[in-house]
Amino acid sequence: MVEVQRLASALVGRVLAGGSLDAEFGAVWRRHAQLGARERAAIQDLAYGTLRFLGRLEALLEELLEKPLRDARLRTLLLVALYQLEHTRAAPHAVVDHAVRACEALGLTSAKGLANAVLRNFLRGRAAIAARAQRSETARYSHPQWWIDKLRAQYPSHYAAVLDADNLHPPLALRVNRRRITTADYLALLAQQGVAGEAHGDAGVMLGSPLPAERIPGLAEGLVSVQDVAAQLAAPLLDLRNGMRVLDACAAPGGKSTHVLELAEVDLVALDSDAQRLERVRANLSRLGLAARVVCGDACAAESWWDGSPFDRILADVPCSASGVARRHPDIKWLRRAADIAQFAQLQSRMLDALWQLLAGGGKLLYATCSVFQEENREQVEQFVERHRDATRQTLPAVDNDPRLPAGQLLPDQRHDGFFYALLRKA
Predict the structure, then answer these.
(1) How far is the C-alpha of 310 from the C-alpha of 184, rounded, in Å?
(2) Closest-CA residue to 57 (of 159, 133, 160)
(3) Which long-range CB contacts under 8 A does 207-212 form with residues at least 24 apart?
(4) Which of 77, 163, 176, 358 is in Cβ range 3.0-4.6 Å of 141 for a Cys bridge?
């Protein structure tokens, strides 16, 4: 456990220095191939948990320190230990002992006494320390203040629920490949294997509790895919018919592309600018027994890859802040900056304008983001329709909106992530 704590704190430190959580996990697994499944799971829990509740943990640590820490390694080690004391069942004395021993493993022998004192003081005065820390909104919601302020301004009746939802463990949803099995038969398969699940929509299945990918019945055989139920709305909203020519403009890792192919016999181009991530598209197509033309190219520069034949349907699941999936990627909360939102909006605007030129007359483009910020969603679509007089926004009856929210906007809750959809028809 000392090594697990040390590796988790080093990983958190690299993320806070600007690294991607997924990329840092990959680096740890490559450098420490000897780690078993239990150790990997423990490191993941500590890293995800510390980043999920970072605002509160930092506030607790500030209450416990007499002066700022100079060593970033010691700071992240104490944050990880505080997460263990607050949110796990680990024995408190063991957490403290491991943190002290981890100081030595990190070459911070002189800090052993400080680490011991800080963590034991927390255990002795936990209630009072926690109460003082909660005075800060960043501590209360474990989000940056700019994020809190933006959500409060845009969703005054919903912002607190969204912030709280971001700190929950995300639900695990599957999409049944109905070319291979019915939803009812797949639920029966789950029941046979003692796995709790319930239907959600036409092809969705919500598992009662998360499972590692290798233990999900039928996943490797292509019976199902892992996909949030909000993301599962995309393909049905395209209003597909057999024989259509379809573009998925930002296809990787392939969840929406494969769903399109499960719904209709179409000529699909799966486009993405990241050649490495396109390998995941190919793997998903192969696993599900589906076929598409996979193209590496820039959606804003069609001249490099487009054959000149217009598309009947375009799915534009554009790059965005990913603010609707922060609970799956808690590093996003601390790596994003307020200025990033305007930069994403500019890219989205350019991409929409470029893709519109590839759409056939009478065709439909589905604009999608996994964002909750209105600059990327409602405002983006309103500005697009203003620029393009041949664009008409269509009604989306399948999106279960709260009537108080902008049309097409889903906010994260216990069932699904935060998503936005707008269907645009070309005259």
Answers:
(1) 38
(2) 133
(3) 207/171, 207/172, 207/173, 207/174, 209/172, 210/169, 210/172, 211/172
(4) 163
Task: Yes or no: say if 21 and 330 are a contact pair by the CB < 8 Å rule.
Answer: yes
Burial of 176 (0-12, 13-18, 19+ CB in 10 A): buried
Dig out the tokens for 213 from the structure: 């990918």
pTM of the model: 0.94
* Tokens describing residue 33: 């191939």
Q: In this structure, what DSSP letter does residue 425 have?
A: E
The CA distance from 196 to 209, in Å, is 7
370 is catalytic: yes
The number of helix segments (H) and strand segments (E) in the chain equals 18, 12
Q: From 237, 269, 247, 236, select the one nearest 393 (Cα to Cα).
A: 237
The per-residue pLDDT string of the chain (427 residues; one tens digit each, 9 = 90 and over) reads 889 999 999 999 999 999 999 999 999 999 999 999 999 999 999 999 999 999 999 999 999 999 989 899 999 999 999 999 999 999 999 999 999 999 998 889 999 999 999 999 999 999 999 999 999 999 999 999 999 999 999 999 999 999 999 999 999 999 999 999 999 999 999 999 999 999 998 899 999 998 999 999 999 999 999 999 999 999 999 999 999 999 999 999 999 999 999 999 999 999 999 999 999 999 999 999 999 999 999 999 999 999 999 999 999 999 999 999 999 999 999 999 999 999 999 999 999 999 999 999 999 999 999 999 999 999 999 999 999 999 999 998 777 667 778 899 999 999 999 999 999 999 9
Give me the domains of the chain, ranges plus CATH numbers.
Answer: 2-142 (1.10.940.10), 173-226 (3.30.70.1170), 231-426 (3.40.50.150)
Write the CB contacts of 131 (distance below 8 Å, at least 6 apart in sequence). Answer: none
Look-up: residue for tokens 């957490």?
95
The label of the residue with tokens 């190919």 reads 282
Q: Out of 103, 250, 320, 370, pick the active-site residue.
A: 370
Preceding amide of 253 cis, omega within 30: yes
The tokens 């664009």 sit on which residue? Answer: 391
Q: Which stretches of 137-291 are assigned E, i.e. beta strand? A: 173-176, 197-200, 204-207, 224-226, 245-248, 267-272
